[in-house]
């Protein structure tokens, strides 16, 4: 005997209050009247409008990782630094766990996020979605909090300020790409993944509320 | 009306509301995504505490051990998190010193203390204002990740400053200990089920 889906209902993940789902106009969100948590929302951007953002983010991801973030000059010596080269240096000097942690949070998870978003958005409008869709969406929700590009960006700024005191610092194309990537990822992260669980065709609004979301 | 009171369970992954058949002994799978449908996150408080204690233990080496070693013609210097803050402060970057002090020292401690406090409020609810507690939990979830800042700064400095004999920077044992503190406290926040805060408020239905 398995569980039965109650499609017309929705429950607050923070306080367990139960509501009836309503169809919302675009850009609106339903909030829990008890604790204020966002229950669900109708996104301002449609799924196909998110596609160019994801593709642009993938391109900036490649640029950010193939071009130096910064070029340092000190007493005639020059050093170009990329994120991956930093991770390799950490690994070589015996800091394998730290290299793995930085690699996972600033490289693997953001790249997985972008590639998975691309796949999910392409499959979203299909009448029959492949079984992989559900599995990837679940996985994406679970590992998304571990992507930390925006924290890395702040880290880049802090280290540049630190380094400016000991060497000549020339920002490279990788730096601008990282800034663009941070902005694009912020847009992608603001797209509520819960939308992707819903069927793509809008359903009829339900009646008989148990409690009115405000 | 509470989902639990209506005999319903919410999928932890896709938030589908599901009716559970009475004869189900083990938690059944979600009809939409297959995730296990537990009533609440299993062993939420025990897991939260396990991660919290591990994070607290590692917080000590994270602050005492050097996170970074700079070797240059002028000699070798070891930096801890606190000495990095002091360096920024005396070199005239008060804003930056405050930022690093906040995300590396205040936030991890405040996060661990808040989670410990929330688990205690679940055990001993008293006259708690649940809206405040819920807001505290959301804040803890939101700011915890920024503590990774110092780990990233060290990683980047290692890659950037490689001038053979002139100057080089190596990561210290404190850095990975600090990274572990951040990861463990994120896992602690993740294990905590905020619905527990609202479960024992005495009222059978909505209070607003
Ligand atoms: Zn709520
Ligand atoms: Zn589910």
TrEMBL record, chain A:
Membrane-crossing residue ranges in chain numbering: 50-70, 98-124, 145-163, 175-193
Domain of life, per lineage: Bacteria
InterPro entries: PqiA-like
Keyword Transmembrane attached: yes
Keywords per UniProt: Membrane, Transmembrane, Transmembrane helix
Protein name: Paraquat-inducible protein A
Lineage start: Bacteria, Pseudomonadati, Pseudomonadota, Alphaproteobacteria, Rhodospirillales
Automatic annotation (TrEMBL), chain B:
Cellular component terms per the entry's GO annotation: plasma membrane
InterPro entries: PqiA-like, PqiA-PqiB_transport
Transmembrane annotation, as ranges: 49-68, 88-118, 169-189
UniProt KW Repeat keyword: no
Keyword Cell inner membrane: yes
Location relative to the cell: Cell inner membrane
Primary localization: membrane
Keyword terms, alphabetized: Cell inner membrane, Cell membrane, Membrane, Transmembrane, Transmembrane helix
Protein's UniProt name: Paraquat-inducible protein A
Organism the protein comes from: Novispirillum itersonii
